Structure formats: structure tokens, C-alpha cells
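Help wanted!
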Amino acid sequence: MPDSASITRDEVAHLARLARLALDDDEIDRFGPQLDVILGAVSRISELDTADVPPTSHALPLTNVTRPDEVRPGLTQSQALAMAPAAEDGRFRVPRILGEEA
Amino acid sequence: MSATDLTRLTAARTAAVIAAGEASALEVTEAHLERIRAVDGDVHAFLHVDTDGARDCARRLDARRSAGEEMGPLAGVPIALKDLIATEGMPTTCGSRILEGWVPPYDATVTRRLREAGLVILGKTNMDEFAMGSSTEHSAFGPTHNPWDLDRIPGGSGGGSAAAVASFEAPLAVGTDTGGSIRQPAAVTGTVGVKPTYGGVSRYGLVALASSLDQAGPCARTVLDAAMLHAVLGGHDPLDSTSIDAPVPAVVEAARAADVRGMRVGVVKQFSGEGYQPGVEQRFREAVSLLEELGATVVEVDCPAFDYAMPAYYLILPSECSSNLARFDGMRYGLRVGDSADASAEGVMARTRDAGFGPEAKRRIMLGTYALSSGYYDAYYGQAQKVRTLIVRDFEAAFEQVDVLVSPTTPTTAFRLGERLEDPLQMYLADLCTIPSNLAGNASMSVPVGLAPEDGLPVGLQVIAPPTADERLYRVGAALESALSDRWGHLLIDEAPELSLNTTEAAL
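Answered by r_m:
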């Protein structure tokens, strides 16, 4: 556990980049202190001794579920594209993905 | 029967009236559409009203009934759906700009089951964006107002579903509950809300917030109505790999039995004291005494790890949410911002997400991103998962002593709109008592137990049962409801103030 949950302005900007959120400066200024308060509050969980406690990722025991490998109807091309922000030649049209700056 | 009378009936009674031919499904639907037109300008429970679709559905049901077809126990009853439940042909926005106008190409399993059972879908209800919030103020389309006091919050995230039911715009609604989003709105609107056991209702077609916590369930004005809806919604679904492959617990029978004689009831020690409104604690204590009078045995139960449920939840939920909401990237559906010839996909994603998500969604996405970061993962997300184990163990120990646990549903009555909007931690406190059930997967209900003396606003009592023992909620809830209604001479919701009717607004 980090000594203090204090979060810097640079860290907020970094988190926003990781989360693909193009925050403006005002947002970064506003979210920083709020995230700090929330992290301070949730850091209380470090008080509990959990050395011998296994983690729980899910409310109920999970088993893998399979189904017969049979062809079933899915969405048609026009259904899949109906709500696309942009479509071209029966496909999703997306911005360029090569030559990214990041 | 007048249109007003038709909107005041319970769902069970509405179905009976239709089955007996005293009113048609179309008349019942028209009465509710008229009520929505008259009051929803003030309440704003709905984001979308499907006037034509509801009428068509009701007409078809009436035709099938005339043809002598056997109908289900809720056939013809109108219902409202929280706007994260996929509905073919009807928008599903999750209260977010990023999905504004999105119409799903398929129905959620919940939607399909309702249609097959002959319920009439009136429309989609308002919610905090992607179900993140306790007030509906985080909806991108403006808040819902509490029918008991329009200046107050209706709870959240499913405030629209609870307010629709409380304002007699619909006898039934479906909500989803990740940390209290069915139960807390039920408590503050004087209605009944149930979070079934995790896996009891299919999640297929529900837009995910936190997949290990999300659960859909019924919103209603009576415990029996909630049970009847639960029976329609629940059951195994091969399309949801976490769906429980077992029959729905006998919830309707339990609601009809309404009997707590011999039941052992545990009062959770952790959920009282500082931060709890006196009137909430008073009505809760009175309700617990009533359970004793009705033949239950009451003991206090210590669940020390519950003190850490909220911090654990606010690490687990943002972690899952930051992953789930990664799908909103502006590529295949939803909003796209900044798409120009020289824009990169990554730049478009970041601008789309900044423009499309509201502040609470952004906060939780960043918190989750932080908690899952290398270097912090073990201390935050890993530790939270271990605390989750401790909470499960507290429940297991408690349910060795008692059949159900009870607590206030939420520490205070409905707070004022705006009061906690800029203080996320204060907002999170509204779900203090409801969160443990989500972390452990328990079944839980909120049932109205009176009005707080200091402000005259509804108080809810939470009943918690072990996983897959959902029927116990209905025994306790129905017993309380029945005894309190006998005492008052009516349901609590009948004390809600009359809303002013807008009769001039043009037809929707």
C-alpha cells in the first residue's frame, strides 16, 4: 500500500491518457482533489489483516459453461451496421489506426 | 372503471381486472399513458415513452384473449424498463450522451421474457449514467424528481423506475442493482424493490457496469406484485454464463404466505448509529418490534467486515467498470467526436469518451484504471477482493444463526437535489447498507415501513437472505406490509401527495 493515497495532477493526466479520456485542464483540476478524497477513503481497507485470506472475484462459484458448437443465426450485416457512427462498403468506417502518436 | 382507478391498482389486481373482462389491456395501457402525460413533465421518470408500441402490444393481447388464448398471470399489465435494458426498436441510452439515440438490434432476455409473458412495455426509465449514482442526477438527460417531494432525489441509479411506480405511471418496473440501485430508490420513494440472488435473473442484454455485482430485479408498489414480476424475470438463461441453473425460488407462494412465525431475524449491528437519521432508526426499530409481535425471534448479529464493504466496493466496482466501459470507443456504435481526415483512431476515442461520459463515469473509470495499475493492483484491487471474502464469511456466520438479516435500507430519507452532487463520498454513503449483498451475491429487498417523523418522507427496511433463498425476503416483506397496512388502513404509497396534473401538454 502506498504511504499516502495522494494523487498528483500529472497522475490524473496520466490516468486520463490510459483511460482514453481527453480531459481538459479544468477537468483535471476538478477531478484531482475528488479522486484524492475517494482514494483516501478506500485506502482504509489496508487496515485489515488479510495475509491468509484468499481473494473472491465473484459472488458465486463459477464453472465454465459450454454449448454445442452449432451454427446459429446472428446479426445480419445491416443490423450490425445500423447504429454505426460511420459505415462504408458494408463495413465500419474508422479513423486511421496506423502512425499513431502514442 | 375510470382511467385514474386503473392506475391505482396493484399489478396483481390489474391482471385480474383484465382477465375478468372488466377492462381491456388497451384501456389499462391508455390510462397509464395518460397518467405519464399528466405528471411526467414534473417527475421525469421516463427517457422514452413508446406510445405506439404499447398500444399495439395491448391491442394484440386483447385480440389473443378474445380468441380464447390462455394468458400468463401478469398479461396486459404495463411495465417500465430501466434504460440499460436492451429493447429492440426502442432507444437504450443508459442515461448517457455516448449512447444517445442508440437502438439495440436485439432484446435482453429480461425484455424477451416480459414480452412473452404479455406485459406491455410503456417505455424506458431515467437513471444515473451507466448506473453510477444514488440520485439520478448523473443522468445526461436531467434528474428524476421524487414524487413525495419534487425537490428531492428519487434515489439512484434506478430513480426513474422507482419514481414511475411511486407516481402511478406504471404498476411495475424493472431495475438493476449493482450496489443498491433497486433498493435505495425503493426506500426513498416508499415502494418495494428486490435484488434477487446474483445469477437469479439473466444479465444478457443488460449494459454492464460491474459484471460480478450487477443484478436485475423487480420494482413494485406491493410485495406480491414484486414476487409475480420476479417469477417472470427469473430463471436459467443459457445466454448468461453466470445464470443459476435451478428453478426460481417460490417467491409468489412466500409473498402470499406472509408468515414470519418461527423465523430467526438478525439485526446487523454495524448499520446504526452515527450517520443514521433518527427517524429512519425509529421506524426501523418499530418494524423490528413488529416482526417480533408477528412471531419472529430477533437477535443482534455482528458483521465486523461490513465496515469495510464500502471501500472494497469502491475499488472493485471502478475496476470492473473501467474495463466494461472500454467498449464505448466510438467505432461500432454510439457517439463519435472529432472524426476528420487527419484524426487518429486513438484521438477520436479519447475525444468521444471525454464528450460522451459525464463526471461520475469519468471519475470511476479513472479510479478503476488507478486500482488496476501495476504497482497498485495488489494494494487496492487485490486487497479489496480479500475483503470481499471476509464479507462473505461474515454473512455465512450470520446465516448459521439466523434466517434473514435486516437493516435500514439507506441511512437517511431522500436528500435534496443538488445536496451531494459535488461531494462524491457523501453520495456513496447512500449505499452503505446495500453494498454488502452485492459483494456476496445475496438476495435483498427493501420494503416501506413508514414515514420519518422529522420530514414525513418514506423509510425502507432491508431484508437480506442467503444466496438462492430469495423466498425468505418475500415472507418477511409481505408480513410487514400486511401488518402495517392493517394498522394504517392502506399502503404507505397511498399517503404520497397528489401530483399536479398537466392536462394541457400535447399528446406524446
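OP: Thanks! One thing I noticed: The mean pLDDT of chain A is 89.
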